[in-house]
Design goal:
single chain, four-stranded antiparallel sheet, alpha/beta, Rossmann fold
């Protein structure tokens, strides 16, 4: 589909599933190489990262564990500076390598908050893997270890990303028209 309508907004095709798969292969290869001597805990940020995480883990071939947290910082099409933790972390992180799996990093506010919490829980090494990164929206100062695709500061849906809970199910990514 070239265009979709989600609630009251129109979106056009932006990143096709094949390009997403190439980006995920690149990230997986780098993680497998970088962490081959570790047993990392992958921490998936729900809801948006569920599709990225599922496809990424099919390509990870090192010993690892996976856990999930649910955070929210969006209302409609706008990000807020308030992060709500809806489902929390249950694992002990002391002296662990943790890789945060995120669908998209724009301002970095949610990720910065998450990094600080993980450091407070004494994680030895915190790394970040994001499918999408909006450098023009980024306002924080932390390293992103694994970036799939850099994109402009457009509002997007599909492949796990939503508009008020809708459009996560599309295999491609669409941007607002």
């Amino acid at each position: 589909m070239k265009n979709i309508k989600v609630k009251d907004k129109e979106f056009s095709i932006f990143i096709k599933s094949g390009e997403i798969d190439v980006a995920i292969n690149k990230i997986a290869k780098q993680i497998n190489e970088d962490l081959k001597d570790k047993v990392p805990l992958f921490l998936v940020i729900l809801n948006g990262a569920f599709m990225f995480a599922a496809d990424l883990f099919k390509k990870i071939n090192i010993d690892c564990e996976v856990s999930f947290v649910k955070l929210s910082s969006y209302i409609g099409t706008k990000t807020t500076s308030t992060i709500r933790e809806l489902i929390g972390l249950d694992e002990v992180l002391k002296q662990r390598t943790v890789v945060i799996i995120e669908d998209i990093i724009d301002t970095g506010i949610t990720m910065d908050n998450t990094i600080q919490k993980l450091k407070h829980l004494e994680a030895e090494d915190v790394r970040i893997a994001t499918l999408l990164f909006k450098p023009s929206a980024f306002v924080k100062n932390f390293k992103i270890d694994y970036i799939g695709i850099e994109i402009p500061n457009d509002f997007i849906v599909g492949y796990g990303l939503d508009y008020d809970g809708f459009a996560r199910n599309y295999p491609d990514i669409y941007k607002i028209i």
